[in-house]
Amino acid sequence: MKVITATDHSIPKTPSVVTIGTFDGVHIGHQKIIKKLTKKAADKNLISVVLTFFPHPRMVLQQNSNIKLLNTIAERKEILAALGLNFIYVQEFTTDFANLTAREFVKTILVDQLKAKYVIIGYDHHFGKNRAANIDDLRAFGIEFDFEVEEISAQDVEDVAVSSTKIRNALKSGDIQTATAFLGYNYYINGTVVKGKGFGKKMEFPTANIQVDEVYKLIPKNGVYVVSSMYKGKVIYGMMNIGMNPTFEADKKTIEAHFFDFNQDLYGQDLNIIFLDRLRDEQKFESAEALMAQLIHDRTKAQQVIAALNA
């Protein structure tokens, strides 16, 4: 699979089957569309292309939007790549792009750039300036420019009953299990391990302080989670706190992971932190000793969750 952009000289010359969308999260509904796309491409001996956008259109069109994404663009590419696509076409979403008329979008991107012969779109898809065009317009353009159009039916959409918005809301409320079910994989964040204040180490629970780019990425609700990561090709398990460290009256939010039976220097390492379950809300304790007693209890519960997952 290859990632291409409008300025890329390696844009394929082969006719394609294209689907269009932001695909934030690449959840089970998105995966259903992409399976249909790759099958259609195989049946018609065409290449499969996902046309996606970055940044999220709402970030450009609604300047006061505080939307956070389920995936960074790098994560989205990684997840899409595993679904058997030939190409991902990443269109930078700008005000200039948003002002393209529907016809300009179809002619410039779908026809001239991607050589579309078959276009699959989600139910009630709108496109072009002010999202003025719909499925009927796209079919008319298909007649003009010689490509076929297939719309994912409302019934198919309802059968999946999932959306990126529902997943965001689940993560904001700390409902990891619902988010996992809707995504079809465990939600994860990526960050670099940086030096923290050493609170965990003093209590014999040393932590990796994860610095995450929060400009785009949605961070789940503050609290304590069961997590895993990969280190030198091996899965490591642990628990992670997201929050303000109220017991120590810290002055900023941190993301700190404690890995079980692990004693390696992680400073500077780039880690994916995978959310397996949620244990509890963040709490303020009367003393460091009280917090340590709770952490011991949390560790026991986390290990039980991990054992059940691996059973």
Automatic annotation (TrEMBL):
<keyword id="KW-0274">FAD</keyword>
<keyword id="KW-0285">Flavoprotein</keyword>
<feature type="domain" description="Riboflavin kinase">
    <location>
        <begin position="182"/>
        <end position="307"/>
    </location>
</feature>
<dbReference type="GO" id="GO:0003919">
    <property type="term" value="F:FMN adenylyltransferase activity"/>
</dbReference>
<keyword id="KW-0288">FMN</keyword>
<dbReference type="InterPro" id="IPR023468">
    <property type="entry name" value="Riboflavin_kinase"/>
</dbReference>
<dbReference type="InterPro" id="IPR002606">
    <property type="entry name" value="Riboflavin_kinase_bac"/>
</dbReference>
<dbReference type="InterPro" id="IPR015864">
    <property type="entry name" value="FAD_synthase"/>
</dbReference>
<dbReference type="InterPro" id="IPR004821">
    <property type="entry name" value="Cyt_trans-like"/>
</dbReference>
<protein>
    <recommendedName>
        <fullName>Riboflavin biosynthesis protein</fullName>
        <ecNumber>2.7.1.26</ecNumber>
        <ecNumber>2.7.7.2</ecNumber>
    </recommendedName>
</protein>
<keyword id="KW-0067">ATP-binding</keyword>
<keyword id="KW-0808">Transferase</keyword>
<comment type="similarity">
    <text>Belongs to the ribF family.</text>
</comment>
<dbReference type="Pfam" id="PF01687">
    <property type="entry name" value="Flavokinase"/>
</dbReference>
<comment type="pathway">
    <text>Cofactor biosynthesis; FMN biosynthesis; FMN from riboflavin (ATP route): step 1/1.</text>
</comment>
<dbReference type="GO" id="GO:0006747">
    <property type="term" value="P:FAD biosynthetic process"/>
</dbReference>
<keyword id="KW-0418">Kinase</keyword>
<dbReference type="GO" id="GO:0009231">
    <property type="term" value="P:riboflavin biosynthetic process"/>
</dbReference>
<dbReference type="InterPro" id="IPR015865">
    <property type="entry name" value="Riboflavin_kinase_bac/euk"/>
</dbReference>
<comment type="function">
    <text>Catalyzes the phosphorylation of riboflavin to FMN followed by the adenylation of FMN to FAD.</text>
</comment>
<dbReference type="GO" id="GO:0009398">
    <property type="term" value="P:FMN biosynthetic process"/>
</dbReference>
<dbReference type="GO" id="GO:0008531">
    <property type="term" value="F:riboflavin kinase activity"/>
</dbReference>
<keyword id="KW-0547">Nucleotide-binding</keyword>
<dbReference type="GO" id="GO:0005524">
    <property type="term" value="F:ATP binding"/>
</dbReference>
<dbReference type="InterPro" id="IPR014729">
    <property type="entry name" value="Rossmann-like_a/b/a_fold"/>
</dbReference>
<keyword id="KW-0511">Multifunctional enzyme</keyword>
<dbReference type="InterPro" id="IPR023465">
    <property type="entry name" value="Riboflavin_kinase_dom_sf"/>
</dbReference>
<dbReference type="Pfam" id="PF06574">
    <property type="entry name" value="FAD_syn"/>
</dbReference>
<keyword id="KW-0548">Nucleotidyltransferase</keyword>
<comment type="pathway">
    <text>Cofactor biosynthesis; FAD biosynthesis; FAD from FMN: step 1/1.</text>
</comment>
